[in-house]
């Protein structure tokens, strides 16, 4: 059974999420402070964390950093902070997704399913994944159409694609992509990403103007949708 740690200082949210998640056969732990969350996580390691940023004893971003010191467990931020700076800060600290309050339980459940998919064997070295009518082999670093034609990618195009495909369903921030592909000195060159994502969509998407797999999350980053 998947264990989810819910961290929020609003009792009604904790109660509602505990009831709804347990009804869907999740094992649920709760905490209403950052220190409590880190203690619970250390004693009963979760498979996923749902985390509010506005905690009474510390900022939720510090909780993310504390967790990331020892675990890669998926973290979904659930926060009333809607500003892009807050979202980018949480994602750069290591969060996997960000939902603003008020929220719908069904949306949260869908996000939970999406981020947990990245734990599947599909992300392991040697995996093959589908992007439209193309098969991407992460081990051989090849992209092949269904008719057998091989699609040539430049090293930068491949690097951007690989970063997204290794985290199916996960929102990857612009800054993270820039740092990992171009280097830590890059952080604001979002035009680079727009250019290369446009190139990848022309090569891989059936309709580049309406992409189904290489998705832009405006102001936040990009997502590979299987």
Model description:
The protein is of the alpha/beta class. It is built from 8 helices and 12 strands. It has helices at residues 11-23, 34-43, 60-68, 84-93, 105-116, 155-165, 174-181, 190-204; strands spanning 3-7, 27-31, 48-51, 75-79, 97-100, 128-131, 134-137, 142-145, 150-151, 171-173, 214-217, 221-224. Strand 6 and strand 7 form a beta hairpin. Helix 2 runs parallel beside helix 3 (60-68) and helix 6 (155-165) crosses helix 8. The protein starts with a strand and ends with a strand. Residues 121-126 have low confidence and may be disordered.
Binned, the helix content reads: 25-40%
Helix/sheet category: alpha/beta
Compute the number of helices: 8
Report the principal-axis shape: elongated
Amino-to-carboxy terminus distance: 24 Å
The residue-averaged pLDDT reads 86
> How many β-strands, per DSSP?
12
Query: What summary fits the major beta sheet?
Result: 5 strands, parallel
Runs in which pLDDT lies below 50 for 5 or more consecutive residues are: 121-126
Q: Give, in spatial order, the strands making up the sheet with the most strands.
A: 2-1-3-4-5
């Amino acid at each position: 059974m998947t264990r989810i740690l819910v961290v929020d200082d609003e009792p009604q949210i904790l109660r509602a999420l505990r009831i709804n998640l347990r009804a869907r056969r999740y094992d649920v732990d709760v905490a209403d402070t950052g220190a409590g969350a880190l203690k619970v996580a250390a004693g009963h390691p979760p498979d996923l964390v749902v985390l509010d940023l506005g905690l009474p004893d510390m900022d939720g971003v510090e909780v993310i950093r504390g967790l990331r010191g020892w675990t890669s467990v998926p973290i979904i931020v659930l926060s009333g902070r809607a500003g892009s700076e807050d979202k980018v800060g949480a994602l750069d600290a290591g969060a996997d997704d960000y939902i603003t309050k008020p929220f719908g339980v069904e949306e949260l459940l869908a996000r939970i399913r999406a981020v947990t998919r990245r734990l599947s064997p599909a992300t392991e070295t040697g995996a093959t994944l589908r992007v439209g009518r193309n098969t991407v082999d992460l081990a051989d670093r090849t992209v092949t159409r269904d008719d057998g034609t091989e699609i040539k990618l430049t090293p930068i195009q491949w690097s951007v694609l690989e970063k997204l495909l290794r985290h199916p369903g996960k929102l990857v921030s612009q800054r993270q992509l820039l740092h990992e592909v171009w280097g830590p000195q890059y952080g604001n060159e979002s035009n680079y990403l727009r250019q290369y994502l446009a190139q990848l969509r022309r090569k891989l998407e059936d309709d580049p103007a309406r992409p189904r797999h290489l998705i832009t999350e405006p102001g936040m980053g990009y997502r590979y949708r299987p």
